């Protein structure tokens, strides 16, 4: 595992969950809305950077088959304990998000709550290709990442940047700003982006057909 990412285990071991801004203790409202509206269908889901497992537990209770990964062994320990308490079956794994140990097109849905915006610039392409590889064609990808409204930073994105990063592999179904009072009491701004994996074979066939015409 890259040393730059190993800091996350130290963070989970140093601070109680209630002091970690992203650990709300309840599922993200935008995720709840998408599931309850039927825009995200039941299936097999990967929760990347799952943390203490709150979102994955919500999905499991809604009938999803959930796999959660996090680079922090302490976070995974929290997640397993919570799942046991809530009496749901989830496969939590200690894994680096750059090395996804899954089959091609294994998942119907990928949840990325605050993972991508911590991926180093040099690793972004690897991460995006990895998510694309394990997601089924037509599968959904929910990205929630920091917005430029939080102030200038290497991982505070504009809408244009998000489109540039993801549009090669994904059809962007919706993209909107949201704000959230985080677990540490701080108001932060995010982009909520729902995407669908493109059917590249169909796209290439269509392109070739136009050329032959």
Question: Can you give a write-up of this model?
Answer:
- By secondary structure, the protein is of the alpha/beta class.
- Helices cover 35% and strands 27% of the residues.
- A 7-stranded mixed sheet has the order 3-2-1-4-5-7-6, with helices on both faces.
- β6 and β7 form a beta hairpin.
- The radius of gyration is 17 Å and the shape is globular.
- The N and C termini lie far apart (50 Å).
Features:
213 residues, alpha/beta, Rossmann fold, seven-stranded mixed sheet, 7 helices, 7 strands, 27% strand, globular
The counted number of beta strands is 7
Percent of residues in helices comes to 25-40%
The first-level CATH class is given as: Alpha Beta
Q: Judging from the principal axes of the Cα atoms, what is the shape? A: globular
The low-confidence parts are 203-209
CATH topology: Rossmann fold
Query: What's the N-to-C terminus distance?
Result: 50 Å
Arrangement of strands in the largest sheet: 3-2-1-4-5-7-6
* Major sheet description: 7 strands, mixed
Strand percentage, roughly? 25-35%
CATH architecture: 3-Layer(aba) Sandwich
Q: Taking all residues together, what is the mean pLDDT? A: 92
Order of helices and strands: HHEHEHEEHEHEEH
Gyration radius over CA? 17 Å
Helix vs. strand class: alpha/beta
